[in-house]
Every structure is written in C-alpha cells, then in structure tokens.
Specification:
It is found in: Nucleus. InterPro entries: ARM-like (IPR011989), ARM-type_fold (IPR016024), INTS4_C (IPR057412). This protein is α+β, with helices and mostly antiparallel strands and 989 residues long. The chain contains 41 helices and 15 strands. Helix 5 packs antiparallel against helix 6, helix 9 crosses helix 10 and helix 21 packs parallel to helix 23. The chain is globular.
C-alpha cells in the first residue's frame, strides 16, 4: 500500500494551489467515486491521501469517519470463520485510517478515541480487540489528555486477553500490559503466570516485563512475591531456548538485588554474593547470547565480597571458598550453590571466542574494580593481555575500562605493563590511539624510567601519525604538569634537540621539537622553582610555536594568555610593536628597547598558572586558566577584531563560499585537504567579533554549518573505492551519521528567522543524510529513515512550489527512484533501489542569507552550589533546587524542557518551561526557578546534571514518548550542562 499511497499523495498535493472552490469540488468528486466503489483495499490509498492532506475540508473528513465506522460495524456483524482472514485484513486497514484521522485532524481525536474504545468493549474477537488497543495507545501518545483514559480501561478485559489462545494476542498484550491501569501486584502475578508459557517468545516477553516493572515500581511491599519471581527465573536457567535463559538472567540480576530491601529475611552481603555466584554459573553456557548477558549482568551487581571477586580471576578454587555455599533459591532453606561456580568466570569471558562476550567481560571488570584494590591490581594483568586482542572493539573497551580505573585511582601500572600499553599509541585505529592517550593524560607514573618510556611513546605516536599532533600536545602538557620534576629531567636530557642550528634557526617544521617545548613549558606549572631548572631560552624558543601550541590547548588557555606566560619565564620585559616598528627592534624574540605597557599587571594575572600543584584537579586547573582569559595585549597582538555589521556579513559570506567550494574536493576524495580548509574557515570565523544580535545568530549558524560539512566529508570517505583508502575506519560510520543528524537538527531548530531558500538548503542536506544512511542499511533502522526521507521530500516539494522554482536534480531523481522502485507496507526498501547511485547527483550550493537569524540558546546557573557546598536532600523525598536561567531569542512556538538526571544515568526528570510565565518573549529573558527533583536515590550523595533542551516538533521523526508528561519528539540541547551537588541530610533520632 505504501507505493500507491505515495503516488496518490504526490498527485493530490500538486493540486493544492487551486482556488478553494475548485479544490472543494475535487474533494467531493474524489470522495464520491470512493463511496460508489465502497472502501476496498484498492481505494484505501486514495482515502488516506484525503485524510493527510491539510486542505481537506472537515465535511469530507467527517464523511470519511462515518463511512469507516459504518463498515467496521458491518464487518464485525458479518464476521465468520470462512472470511476471517480477509475481514481481519480489512479491519486492520480501516482502524489505521481512523488513527490517521485522529493524528492529522485533532478536532476529531476524542471522537475517534471513544469510537475505537467502544469496539474494545463490544467486540468478541480478541484479535480485533488487540488492534483497537494498539490504535488507542498510538492516539494517546499524540494527545496527553487521553493518557488517563487508557488507564481507565477495565483491567479485567485486558487480563482476559492475556489468556487468549492466540500466541500473537498473548504476546502483544504482555508486551504492552504495563501501559494499562493494572495494579502492580496483579500485574506481577500475571507476568509470573506466563514465565512458563509453552511458547518461548511469550516466556521472554513475560520475563522482560518483570525486569521493566522492577524499574518503574519503587518498592514492592510483598517480598514473597519477589522471591517467587526470582526462583522461577533461576529455574529457567536450564530452559532449552537461549533467548529464555538470557531473559531469565536479566530477572535474576534485577530482582535478586531487590530482595534485601523487600522485607525478606536475608543477610545483605551474603545474598548479593549469592546472586553474583548464580550469574557466574551461566558464563559457560553454550549460547553466546546467554554468556554475553551473564557478563553484562555481573557488572550491574552493587555489592560483592573481595574473595568472590578474586575467585573470578582464578580457575583454581581458592582455599577459603572450597567449602563455602550460598542459597540457590529463596524457597530452598539449605545451602546448595557452591562458591566455586565463580571460579575463573572472567578468565573464561576474556578468552571467549566471540568478541561480544570479551567486550562485555571487559566492561563488567571496569564496573567492579571499585569494590577492591587487590581485585583491580589482579584484573590489570588480564586487561593488559586484552590490548593485543584482534578485535578493535575489545581493545577499545579495554582502554575504556582502564580509564575507569584511573579515574577512581585503581590503576597502578608497573614497568612490565608499559611496553604493551604504549604499543596502543601506534595502533592503526585513531580511536584506539585517542583512548590510550586519554588514559595516559590522567595516569600518575611512579618512576622516571616509566615516565621517560611514556614520553617516548607519545613522540613515536607523533612521528607515525602527525595528524594526532593537537591531542598529543595536550597530553604532554598535562603529563608535564602532573610530573614536574620528571619533565624537567627529560627536557634536560634532550635539550640539544631543541637548540637552533649553527645558523641560529629553529626547526619550525619539526613536530618533535614542538612537543618537547610543550613538555618544557608545562613543568613550571607544578612549582615555580622548577622554572629555574629550565633555561630561559627554552621559553623563548617556544614563542614562535605559540599559535601551534595554543591551538592544542585551546580548551584550557587562550593564545594571548599563553604568550604572556612565555614572555614572563623567558625574562622578556618588553615586546616589539608597542611604540616602534619591527625594524627598530631586530631581535623580537630576545627582546627590544621599548617597554610593554601594563606588563606587570598581565604577569600577575598569569601567576595562578604557576601555583597549580599536583593535587589540583583538572576542573580547577581549567577554571583558573579561563579566569585569566581577559588579558589584553596591544593591537598588534590582538587576534580578534571587532567588525562593523557590513564587514562582518561580507567576511562570513566569503567564508561560506569557500566552504561550498570544497564539495568537488570531497567528491574527489581529497579529504585531508578539505579538513584543512574547513579548519581554516572555522579559525577565520573565530576572529570575527560582532555586537549585533542579528549577526551573532548568523555567526553561530555559520559555525554550525561548517561543522555539518565537516561531518559530511568524514562520512563521504566511507563511500569511496576501498583500494584508495585501506585505512578507513568503518566502525565509526554509524557514530558519524548520528553526529551529522544531531548537527542538522541544531541547524533546523536552534535558529529562528530562516527564510524558505535557507530552509530548502538545509532540507537538501537532511535528504543527503538520509540517503547516506540508507546506502549502508546494515548500521541503521531504515524504517525511521524512510519516514524522514518521505516527509523531507514532501516538504521540499511544497517549498519549491511556493518559491516557484524547479526541484533540484538530486531530490527529483530520488523522488522518481522511490516511485519506480517503491517500498512495502512496512517501509522496507525495495532491493532494486540503489541509493549509492544517487549520491553522485548531490551538489553543495552556496549558503546565501537574506533574512535575520536569531540563535536560540540558554545559560543555566545554580548559585551557591558546588562540590564543597552541596544542597541537602532526604532520600525518597523531593529535593528543591534553585536555578537561574537566561534565555536568548525564545519564541512562543518553542517548547523548552529542563532536564535533570542523576549522573549515573538511571533517574531522569523533565520539567516543561512555560514561557507564558517567564516574562514573555524578549531577546534576553532572565528568570529564577525553584525546581523540585522527585527521583532522589537512596545514596549518601549524588550529582544532578541539569540542562535545557528544545523539543523538535517535526513530522519527519518518529515519536519518542519519554513517559507521562515528558517530551514526545526528539530533543536538541541548547544550554550548558550544569552539575548540582546533593548530600543526604543528617537525621536525628
């Protein structure tokens, strides 16, 4: 039906420009023909074309609704066994059309909802009831006012469908039973009743329903019921179907950890050990899916004894655990679960033949190392071996686990480890090298020999992969700051390498020299006395490299601040160019004759750089550096220049023309040249400073647009012939596509004032992103992408009609190809449709602006709160938080939400920001809100992450319901992320 539907919709939409009377006559004519032929399957596409067309009159929609309702009643009355399949198919399509009426014509939504609900109450056909319930849920997702009506459906009617003889009916009801207003205890009993269903997939759905229920119910009052569910899940560990055993593992993990808090008399530590050992018994299962699920669940256990953890790293049973046993079930009073089940669990996982299992084992190790220092040290020996794994995914996860260890001070490296670890710095994968440097950045090295080998490893990385220079310089900077005395010793040893040649010239093209200079200038940050150990000329040598170094440290320090820092330690007291020309001062590096005004003031502001010790946190270090960014230099050293509006607009337009000119280079595969050009464009854009709100929006949009083109260039290389690019990182393609979608969403929804030409340009890029995804369907869900593709094409056609211009060759050929090849009812692609052929037709045009752009963003602050001054809270009770919001360029059509989530990620809360109560819609609105956070966890302290998000109200994205009262559509972040520190209030008895 999808192809016919698209054809009719396209033909009809092209006629919407006619006069209203003529359009109305056409609607009447089309509907008359449909009525005469009765609503058959063949005419359903025409009916839907009328429904989804926004210009169709209410009279026609009402007639369609009445006719569909009448035929549904008739089909119900004439339903018999002989025409069951045919009638059921028609009933499905009729209900789908009623759902379309509710979605596209909101004035009919309550009527459609009540009509379909009446079918649920009156029909005796269970399959038809399920179809109706599905429609009701879909309608309620689009209309929050009807959510409560879903919970009012009689729970007995829903539970009765759970016991239907049809497997499909049982499966659907059990999968969605939590959405209806069924009491928790009854719901648990219903799900428990189906964990032994004859059909394995019904058992899986019932088990997953129990897991889902454990997350939504704060506390079960019936501990015996939880124990019964735990025991039944343990029994299913021997089920013949792997999917059932995997689902049973999830229940044991979640429900097992709920038991101590549910009133069951068990010793907490022993019971958690019991659940852990129970899961360990499944790591040798014959099914990869089951083994993988077992290791994922092991990482979720909240408490384990050290001796049990150590046993998982040794295949030999430890002496103190040989006779130890745990309860296998709640209902079993004797001890029947030997602790030896945990023997070598992680050893088996890290040696598994499937990379998925090895990855999960590595990940779980990272989550468990916080329980024991000894366990972390022993696990490190196994993890080092995993750095040689043939799978890049496993190596990457191993480094991520090491990063978790170093952040919680559990990574104690030894000299024997370093050779294997430093080998990752020259790995062929950029991701691996970056992850290794991420660990090295925070690592505290105990000996000079280890430090020296680490620095040499980074320098080898730089020589082998010069494109990593910026990140390597940043790591060297932090390593020098954290190991000041080691850094001075190393620089002293290699000082001859950075000396000028006999002609007095520095080796400006030598990255190794620049790297050593970065290490040298970072050493005094530990203690000022270390600066005396480094010759002042070394700081002078670094001045010509200041732009290169500042770019690498751009997240921490500005170029001007770094330059002042180098001048201070090179003992230069005046800078050329303040009162005389360069000709008057032949030696600008060594110093000239003219004093620099206010140099003492600048040096005093640089002083905090020297006072950062090894104990200072990275966050505090970055804060101190940012505090001195206001340092001002004479005009000759000022990088940013304030433009007039006209100059700024011309400059930005020229930069965007240069961006468009890179398209031919992208298609030719010259990606390195493209990236250099785009980086230059962004750097040039950063030099433009304007005071106009209109041009600020233009500037922000241009920066975001360049980022989109950068992502397209990074993705495009994956579609070039492999013989030219053997090093392609295909594992990153899905991540790059997600980043492209996210940045395109920002272009569309974070800027107001886009005219139709600018909107058309962005939609062409959205179309390109869809085609890129569909060209590699193995990494994406093509159903949602096809919906976005069809909606975007329709939008482009309407814009072209309004602008009275021809549709682009790329979009036109894509529309034609979809019509010829088509897609089925489930939105699956026809196999003969080749999207790769269409990519060659796309062309990136110049981005021309004619309107006024305003950047929609927000700033969020929490006054009086930091890690040393947390807010008090009582577990289980709402916690009040005072938040200061500054909103920029918000309009009445924007739907903003304040998102607050616990840092670990489980608990999340959305608060709708009603702009009608926030002082209207000005360019800048400031407001202070007192916000309650309801989901306070049972913890001594926690950290909230607060940010402002904007809901993207677009028809081309799938609805993503996030719970009652939360946002329905996709979201884009428009503010900074602010941490809110909370600590449990002390109670007195």
């Amino acid at each position: 039906m999808g192809l016919k539907e698209s054809k009719y919709q396209t033909q009809y939409s092209h006629r919407t420009w006619r006069e209203p009377s003529e359009t109305k006559n056409m609607e009447e004519e089309i509907w008359g023909k449909i009525e005469k032929s009765n609503p058959s399957i063949q005419s359903l596409s025409s009916i839907r074309a009328l429904i989804i067309n926004p210009s169709t009159s209410k009279h026609i929609i009402s007639a369609v609704f009445q006719t569909l309702t009448q035929y549904l009643h008739q089909q119900q009355e004439t339903h018999n066994l002989e025409n069951q399949i045919q009638n059921q198919n028609q009933l499905h399509h009729y209900l789908k059309l009623l759902c379309d009426i509710a979605a596209h014509h909101h004035e009919f939504t309550p009527t459609v909802f009540d009509t379909v609900r009446s079918f649920v109450m009156s029909s005796g056909n269970s399959q038809f009831k399920v179809e109706c319930l599905s429609v009701l849920l879909t309608i309620a997702e689009h209309d929050e006012n009807l959510v409560s009506a879903i919970t009012e459906i009689d729970e007995n009617d829903v539970i009765e469908l759970c016991y239907d003889s049809s497997v499909s009916v049982r499966s659907w009801i059990l999968r969605n039973v939590c959405k209806f207003g069924i009491r928790d205890e009854i719901l648990v009993r219903v799900l428990l009743g189906f964990v032994n269903d004859p059909y394995p997939y019904v058992r899986v759905i019932a088990l997953d329903g129990l897991v889902k229920l454990s997350k939504s119910v704060v506390e079960f009052k019936n501990g015996g019921l939880i124990g019964e569910g735990y025991d039944r899940a343990v029994d299913l560990f021997v089920d013949s179907n792997a999917c059932v055993r995997a689902a049973a593992i999830r229940v044991v993990c979640e429900w097992g950890q709920m038991l101590p808090a549910s009133g069951v008399e068990v010793e907490e530590q022993d019971w958690f050990n019991s659940v852990f050992v129970q899961l360990c018994s499944m790591v040798r299962d014959m099914s990869m899916e089951v083994r993988n699920e077992a290791f994922v669940s092991l990482g979720k256990i909240k408490m384990v004894s050290e001796d049990i953890l150590l046993q998982t790293l040794s295949k030999k049973v430890l002496g103190n655990l040989k006779e130890r046993k745990f309860p296998g079930k709640i209902s079993t009073k004797f001890l029947d679960l030997p602790a030896s089940n945990a023997a070598g669990a992680f050893v088996h996982g890290l040696e598994d033949e499937f990379y998925e299992v090895r990855r999960s084992a590595c990940s779980s190790l990272g989550m468990l190392i916080a329980f024991s220092v000894r366990f972390a040290n022993d696990a490190l020996n196994l993890l080092m071996d995993m750095l040689n794994d043939h799978s890049m995914v496993v190596r990457l996860q191993t480094l991520e686990t090491m990063y978790q260890m170093v952040t919680c001070d559990r990574l104690k490296v030894q000299e024997a480890h370093m050779h294997m670890f430093l080998g990752t710095l020259v790995d062929a994968s950029t991701l691996i090298r970056c992850a290794a440097r991420k660990v090295l950045r925070l690592l505290k090295l105990p000996f000079m020999k280890i430090f020296k080998s680490s620095i040499n490893g980074l320098l080898t990385n730089l020589e082998t992969y010069p494109e990593d220079e910026a990140d390597i310089f940043s790591v060297l900077f932090y390593m020098g700051r954290n190991h000041g005395s080691f850094a001075v010793s190393f620089v002293t040893e290699v000082s001859q390498e950075i000396e000028p040649s006999c002609e007095g010239e520095l080796k400006f093209d030598n990255p190794r020299v620049a790297a050593i200079l970065v290490l040298a200038i970072s050493a005094p940050l530990t203690h000022e006395r270390l600066a005396c150990s480094i010759p002042t000329k070394v700081f002078s040598y670094a001045i010509p490299f200041v732009g290169r170094i500042a770019f690498s440290l751009r997240d921490s320090v500005t170029q001007d601040t770094l330059l002042a820092y180098l001048y201070k330690f090179s003992r230069i007291t005046h800078i050329p160019g303040t009162e005389s020309s360069i000709e008057d001062d032949p030696s600008p590096v060594a110093g000239g004759k003219l004093p620099l005004h206010n140099i003492d003031e600048i040096f005093n502001r640089v002083l905090p750089l020297q006072q950062i010790s090894n104990e200072a946190s990275e966050d505090q270090f970055q804060k101190d550096l940012r505090d001195i960014r206001q340092t001002t230099f004479p005009p000759t050293h000022q990088r940013k220049v304030i433009f007039t509006d006209e100059e700024a607009e011309i400059s930005i337009t020229l930069i965007l023309k240069m961006v468009a000119a890179t398209w031919q280079l992208i298609k030719s595969g010259l990606i390195d040249e493209v990236q250099k050009t785009l980086r230059s464009c962004r750097e040039e854009l950063a030099t433009v400073v304007v005071n106009s709100n209109r041009l600020n929006g233009f500037l922000a949009f241009a920066s975001q647009y360049i980022q989109v083109v950068q992502h397209v260039a990074e993705i495009w290389i994956h579609f070039l012939p492999l013989r030219k690019f053997q090093y392609i990182k295909t594992g990153m393609l899905d991540h790059l596509l997600e980043k492209l979608d996210d940045n395109l969403r920002k272009l569309r929804y974070e800027f107001s004032g886009l005219n139709k030409e600018e909107e058309l340009h962005i939609l062409e890029l959205v179309l390109l992103a869809c085609v890129l995804r569909l060209s590699r369907m193995e990494i994406c869900c093509n159903v949602n992408t096809m919906k976005r593709l069809r909606s975007t094409i329709s939008h482009i056609q309407l814009l072209c009609d309004d602008l009275q211009i021809e549709i682009s060759e790329f979009a036109g050929e894509l529309t034609k190809s979809l019509s010829e090849s088509g897609y089925r009812d489930d939105d699956a692609l026809s196999p003969q449709l080749s999207f790769k052929r269409l990519l060659g037709l796309f062309s990136l045009k110049d981005m021309v602006f004619n309107g006024i752009l305003r950047h929609i963003n927000a700033e969020l602050k929490v006054p009086g709160n930091d890690s040393e001054n947390p807010f008090p809270f009582v577990s289980g009770m709402p916690a009040g938080v005072t938040i200061q919001l500054t909103l920029f360029n918000i309009t009445e059509n924007d739907r903003l939400w304040l998102k607050m989530s616990v840092q670990e990620g489980d608990l999340c809360q959305y608060l709708f920001l009603d702009l009608n109560h926030i002082k209207g819609y000005d360019e800048i609105n400031k407001v202070t809100l007192s916000v309650p956070f309801y989901n306070t966890p049972k913890a001594a302290s926690f950290v909230l992450r607060a940010l402002v998000v904007k809901e993207c109200s677009s028809e081309d994205v799938g609805q993503m319901a996030r719970g009652f009262g939360g946002p329905k559509g996709e979201l884009t972040v428009i503010s900074n992320i602010t941490k809110i520190y909370m600590v449990a209030a002390k109670t007195t008895t």
